Amino acid sequence: MQITLSGVRVEGRRDPMLESTDLTWSTGECLLVAGEPGHGHTALALVATGRFVPSSGTVRLDGAVVPPSALRARTAVVDVPGISEPDDALSLADIVAEGLALAGRRSLPRDVSRWLEERSLTDERGRRVDQLPGVVRTAVLAALATENPDVRFVVLTLPDRHGGEPSGWWETARTLAASGLGVLVQSTRSSARDLGVDLPPARGATLHEPPQVVRREQPGAPVEETGATAVLPVAVPSGPPATEPERPTDQDPVPVAVAAAPEPGPEAEDGLEIEDELDPSPEPEARAEEELDPLDAAPPEGSPSDGPADSSSDVPADGADHTPVHDTPIHDSLAATPADDLQEEAR
């Protein structure tokens, strides 16, 4: 389906409410219309949906001029200031009940609870509508407007006036368009710039220009440029791909100990392992046995200990001094002297 506005103009009591405007709007696509606040947004939303009769120009549905009631049956306006915006004092549960009733759906408390639970909004049911984030408010009101199966076109009027990132409510509009609806989003020029549209600042006569279509998009299809103002959607990433994070140190395949190991000496050049050079020699074990000889020579327990020490066993028969010469250092032999004294006292 398609709605076409040709030369639509709305006169006011003193100044025009909407200057002459041309617009084509189809199901399955999302349009962004930018303009300064208070300059034709409300008039455009009402005229395009058959809720206001234009002073001049025509509004066609699928190429045919139809009664305004036929347009109203196929369209819905969401959060239009002073027209369809909810009372700020109402709670979210009240808004859902009213929206379901307007869509011809059952609006009992259990129906409201089920509707909120399906959208993970049960914890927010008691909050006032003016306390909701702007993106949540727009998404809830748009979802309630589409509860009516006859609605094929939706108008979101100035969702940026409630704050939040423009990318949030623009993604909501794209989701609705992906479901087969025609979505018309009205915003300020500054919000359009935040979405990536290149718009010059409004000066002089451009301050009173009617809202202009600055982006036309079909979700899943390339963005259609309108003049030289439209750019790629914000949802499409344009930065460099994310780099792979560095691996932790404990996963490094090269141990630190290997990097710090000393290089093999000349002896290892013939294919010998470094461990071969470090094999312990059997000499220290033999040396240890020789150092324990004085202790091993202790007499048995039954030997007398009152008499003088018998040193004849330590002297050879020929009288010569045959004390074995060991490779023990001097300080080792001195350290063994106190042990000999204790052995003599024990005897």
Structure in words:
- There is one protein chain.
- With 347 residues, the chain is of the alpha/beta class.
- Helices cover 30% and strands 15% of the residues.
- It contains 12 helices and 9 strands.
- A 5-stranded mixed β-sheet has the order 6-7-8-3-9, sandwiched between helices.
- β7, α6 and β8 (182-187) form a beta-alpha-beta unit.
- α5 runs parallel beside α6.
- The longest helix has 17 residues, at 330-346.
- The chain is globular and about 45 Å long.
- The protein starts with a strand and ends with a helix.
- Residues 222-300, 302-317 and 324-337 have low confidence and may be disordered.
What's the topology here?
Layout: E1 2-10, E2 18-26, E3 30-34, H1 41-48, E4 56-61, E5 64-65, H2 68-74, E6 75-78, H3 92-102, H4 109-118, H5 134-145, E7 153-157, H6 166-178, E8 182-187, H7 189-194, E9 212-217, H8 256-259, H9 274-277, H10 283-291, H11 293-296, H12 330-346
Parallel strand pairs: 3-8, 6-7, 7-8
Antiparallel strand pairs: 1-2, 1-4, 3-9, 4-5
Helix pairs in contact: 3-4, 3-5, 5-6
List keywords for this structure.
347 residues, alpha/beta, 5-stranded mixed beta sheet, 4-stranded antiparallel beta sheet, 30% helix
Strand order of the largest sheet: 6-7-8-3-9
The major beta sheet can be summarized as:
5 strands, mixed
Q: Look at the structure and give the mean pLDDT.
A: 73
What oligomerization state is this entry in?
A: single chain
**Principal-axis shape:** globular
- Structural class comes to alpha/beta
Q: Supply the number of helical segments.
A: 12
E-strand count = 9
Helix content: 25-40%
Rg of Cα set: 48 Å
Question: How much beta, percentage-wise?
Answer: 5-15%
User: First CA to last CA: what distance?
Assistant: 123 Å
Low-confidence stretches: 222-300, 302-317, 324-337
Order of helices and strands: EEEHEEHEHHHEHEHEHHHHH
